[in-house]
Structure formats: C-alpha cells, structure tokens
Amino acid sequence: MNRKSLHQLSLAAGAALAGAALVAVATPVLAQSSVEEVTVIGRYGPLPDDVRSISQTVSYADLDLGSADGRHELKHRIALTARYLCDRLGESDDSDPVVPSCREAAMKDANARADAVIAYVSYRGPTWEARSDWSGPYRRDW
Would you say the pTM of this structure is higher than 0.70? Predict the structure, then answer.
C-alpha cells in the first residue's frame, strides 16, 4: 500500500468512528423523545369468541420517575387500569383463586415493563418538565 491509500483509509476510519460517536450521543436523546407510556393488557373470559384481550396505555410523561411519589403513582395507574380492563372483560372479585386472575396477570406484566422504564429513566435531570396530566379510562373516585 502506498501513502496515499493509507491516508485515505485512515480518513475513512476516522469518519466511521465520528459517525459511531454521533449515534452513541444521539441515541439517549432519541429515546427521551419517544412516547412515554406503558401498555397494560387484560386477558380473560366471557367476551365474544374473537375478543380475548384488551389493552390500554398508561402515560408517565407527567411523572418524575426519579422520585418515590412518581414511581408509586405509575404503579397505582397500572393497578387501576388493570382493574378497569379486567372488569370490562368480565372478571369479578370472587374469581377462582386457582387460576391466575386477569388483574394480577395484567399488573405483573405491566409492572415488569414499568420497572424496566424506571431503571432507564429514573433520573430525568434538572431540566425535565412534566407534560400535561394523564387521565385514565376509569372513574377518578376508584
């Protein structure tokens, strides 16, 4: 290889490294601009045969997940949404304890997703601003 081709090769490698660094820096910014919600999925019984589950998103855009209050509120929203969905699916409070309840399964699944989100965005930093309040599909007095 001559000097000119070595120089061109090193320039190409440098450009590739600069591009990789730009992607690494931009990725967290892109992740922060994504939709800030967790999906709760209720799966249960007596609906028409073609409907076996329903889902509802729960926003955390207005919550500071770096605070205990913010994390508690997200879990509370998930619990109420699971209750709402499973009530719509026909689950009663006196369901068979041998079979996992719709509500318990929906909460377990959504809370696992929420825990992953909390681990990733638990500290939003001093410049974070809450977005508008989220309104659940259920009554406020639940």
Answer: no
Over the stretch 68-99, which tens digit does the pLDDT of each residue have?
999 999 999 999 999 999 988 888 766 566 56
Residue 40 — φ and ψ, nearest 5°?
-100, 130
End-to-end CA distance of the chain: 75
For every residue of the chain, which 3-state class applies, written as one string?
Answer: CCHHHHHHHHHHHHHHHHHHHHHHHHHHHHHHCCCCEEEEEEECCCCCCCCCEEEEEEECCCCCCCCHHHHHHHHHHHHHHHHHHHHHCCCCCCCCCCCCCHHHHHHHHHHHHHHHHHHHHCCCCCCCCCCCCCCCCCCCCC
Other Cβ atoms within 10 Å of 16 Cβ, number: 10
Rounded Cα distance between 85 and 52, Å, is 11
Q: Using CA atoms, how far apart are residues 24 and 2, in angstroms rounded to an integer?
A: 33
**Residue 78 in contact with residue 110, Cβ under 8 Å?**
yes
Alpha-carbon distance 70 to 64, whole Å? 5
Planar angle of CA 114, 119, 121, nearest 5 degrees = 90
Q: Which residue has the tokens 């997703």?
A: 113
